[in-house]
Amino acid sequence: MEVLYEDNHLIIVNKTCREIVQGDKTGDRTLLDEIKDYLKTKYNKPGNVFLGLTHRLDRPTSGLVVFAKTSKALERMNALFANHDVRKTYWAIVKEVPPAAEMHLENYLRRNEKQNKSYVAKNKDKDAQLAILDFQMIASSDRYHLLSVNLHTGRHHQIRCQLAHIGCPIKGDLKYGFARSNPDGGISLHARHIEFEHPVTHETVSVTAPVPNDNLWKEFEKSVG
């Protein structure tokens, strides 16, 4: 577990693709559990430790996750996310060249609970939610391309689904059409940067997550600077 930011109210960590944020049917130990143990040990706290999850990150995705250490911070962070006052940037590696180097995507997505997958709806219907993002291609290697993605909504599997819809599934993402899995079992989607007004101190919090320890990721990080 890599802690990138911590104060009395918040803790921000850099999640690996192997970690699960909160419990699911697998019963695997969660990042929430790991951080609670970290806080309990670091501050020698007896009993249960309060820790609130302010947002989610898919298990195969790496990068920034923000947790609240107090109920006040949790309530206020939830409001920031609900009001779209948190700026999040993701990096995604794709094999196919996008239709344009910069794109604004708006689609209505429908979630299939049984498949744990989202689909672009042909027409707006009662089950579909509007999903909006912008991206630009910021680097290329011999075989792959790096996209910087800015989210305007936070729908289920939004980046994965919308990029696949334009013919650019994320590297390693078998669920959305990429041909092969990554060796580590994750997908090449990384929550790279987050910025928001601190819910208590009102100072600007700006955090960037180092990329996974992988040669392609490191190559792209070096080329972008």
Question: Could you characterize the architecture of this molecule?
Answer:
With 225 residues, the protein is α+β, with helices and mostly antiparallel strands. Helices cover 19% and strands 34% of the residues. The chain contains 4 helices and 11 strands; from the N terminus they run ββαββαβββββαββα. It has helices at 31-42, 71-82, 158-165, 215-224; strands at 2-6, 10-15, 52-53, 62-68, 87-94, 102-112, 117-120, 129-140, 145-151, 189-197, 204-208. Strands 1, 2, 3, 4, 5, 6, 7, 8, 9, 10 and 11 form an 11-stranded mixed beta sheet that branches. The two termini are 24 Å apart.
Describe the SSE topology.
Blueprint: E1 2-6, E2 10-15, H1 31-42, E3 52-53, E4 62-68, H2 71-82, E5 87-94, E6 102-112, E7 117-120, E8 129-140, E9 145-151, H3 158-165, E10 189-197, E11 204-208, H4 215-224
